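Board work, copied verbatim: Subtilase
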Amino acid sequence: MKGLIGRASKAAFFGLLITGLNAFAATPESVPGEFIVKFKDEAVAVSSMKELSQDLGSYIKDVIPGQNIVVIKRPVFEIQSNVMKSLAMNPNVDIVEPNFIYRINKTPNDPMLGQLWGMINTGQADSQKREGIAGIDIGAAQAWDITTGSKDVVVAVIDTGINYNHPDLKSNLWTNDAELNGKAGVDDDGNGIIDDIYGANFVTAAKPTGNPLDDHGHGSHCSGTIGASGDDGKGLVGVAWNVRIMGVKFLSASGSGSLDGALKAIDYATSKGAKILSNSWGGGGYSETLKQAIERSNAAGTLFVAAAGNESNNNDSNPTYPATYDVPNVLSVAAIDNRGQIASFSNYGKTKVHVGAPGVNIVSSITGAGYDSWSGTSMATPHVSGMAVLLATAEPNLTGIEMKERIIATSKPLAGLRGKSKGGLANAYTMLTNTLPQPDPNDPVNWQTVDVAHSTPHPYTNKSNLVYEVSVPGAKQISVYFSKFDTERDYDKVEFYDANGKLVGNMSGKNDETFSPVIDGEYVKIVFTSDDSVNRYGFDITKAAWR
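↓ predict structure ↓
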């Protein structure tokens, strides 16, 4: 059976919150792949286009007369900083700059925008009154000045269906024109499903219907994050203000579905031209037939976005499906909270989980005309699916694999995800501009370090109660680095106290090559306690970062 990867926050099914510290600096927007080049010598600037193109190794898009300036275009997949370095080494070049973009600031007028910390995090409290850290978001505000999506892009939400009557969703629905303009009760497009106008229903896989109406809320919640209509003065807004959402239901009102339903759902979405398949579900064991269905979607050029799972599991060592299938278009998404820490329930994996996205206390549309705050990697996944809509709008010729690679390569390094995912926090703006993110000044990996040597016994003993102290005179903040960290999760833990005896945070489980929570001041007391059951390796602290 397949199960949902998301729960209402009020259900308290998972532990949701841990804390961290982070912030990001903005990168100026520019035309992807374009640069302004000024030459040192006027004689060079009046050379033929062919000579200039050969000299710069670039296509000359335009010339600004009398200024010794040309506008060049390079492949958009090239990293901007690398191109600029290469061009600057040319002895004939005086100035190299990105072709910057200047715009009015575009912000939607949807009244619930301030509740969507995953889009724009100013440090506001989330739905559980927990204050965030400004900048821990997907960079939507900057991205929306470039594009807000397009009705040319179709995203299939493979889930519990879609509330096609919701006021924030009904203007962004995909429609099957053959059925919409055909005869009621007739299979007008000949696909074996009658009146599949807004999508299809495969809950009873042997007898699919054309009604994907959501009777749970989960699929509609995901749909709202992807593409609730924007700038319409009501409700909230999705990552993509403009999109066509296809409802593909194979999960029932109880939140579960079967393999045969999943196979038919993926094939339906692929056959109907969805560019992005959003999958906030998981379960079961390895299925070759499910993998083959995803491979068929890959062959069609789609992006298969999948929730990493909610079991606090290492997907590298214990695969979760469909998120860990080795198919090139699968993009696996972990959940973070509004302070930049990976959610306590989220699965992780340095190779099998690709990026993180907001997934704790996320407000979106549900059944009826309502809204609710839910948590899960289910809620993180549609943030990335919505970002993919923006990318497909800006660069419609990209394949699903190319979109996946771009999203990972331009994700922002995040201390809370280090060692937990291949990339960092997915960011719509750097994705659209194909730029590398700015280093995070609040991440201990970017601070000075001093050598430290503290270790537990390996393995540690029953009922351990060990205390270690680290001081860095003159530091305003410190964080200790664990080269190896392996304790029995939730039972054997490490706690961190500042000089005033205040508990700052704790760690448990497997956290190799990880920094501790940041402690204000020059001192931290580290207390390790264990129970009398499983005794694991323990930890090795090898350095302390400080600033």
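The longest strand covers residues 149-159.
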